[in-house]
Amino acid sequence: MLDYAAAILALLLDWIAKGFVVLGLAFLADLLLRRANASLRHLIWLVGLAAVMLLPVVSWMVTV
User: Fold this and answer.
1) H helices then E strands: how many in the chain?
2) What is the dihedral of CA 55, 61, 62, 64, to 10 degrees?
3) Around 17, how many Cα atoms within 13 Å sit in the side-chain half-sphere?
4) Which of 10, 16, 44, 61 has the largest CB neighbor count within 10 A?
5) For 35, phi and psi rounded to 5 degrees?
6) Contact (CB, 8 A) for 56 and 15
7) pLDDT by residue (tens digit) across 15-63?
């Protein structure tokens, strides 16, 4: 039981770290493009959030 909990915790921490990196890159892109159209900046955030939501699926597909 403890092994499963440790594995799940490691997986969650991995997803959190990857999500932090993805959203950090979206934030940097937003800063660099602050004078661009609002629609472009919203698209950057949309892609960043979609990437964070797909992280569990993609990491599962890569490991299998």
Assistant:
1) 2, 0
2) 140
3) 7
4) 44
5) -95, 0
6) yes
7) 999 999 999 999 999 999 999 999 999 999 999 999 999 998 998 888 7
Place of tokens 């403890």: 2
- Cα–Cα distance between 16 and 9 in angstroms, integer? 10
Place of tokens 């159209």: 37
Structure tokens at 21: 């990196």
Closest-CA residue to 42 (of 53, 30, 54): 30
Rg (CA), the chain: 15
Q: Give Cα 29 distance to the centre of its chain.
A: 14
For residue 60, the Cα-to-chain-centroid distance in whole angstroms is 14
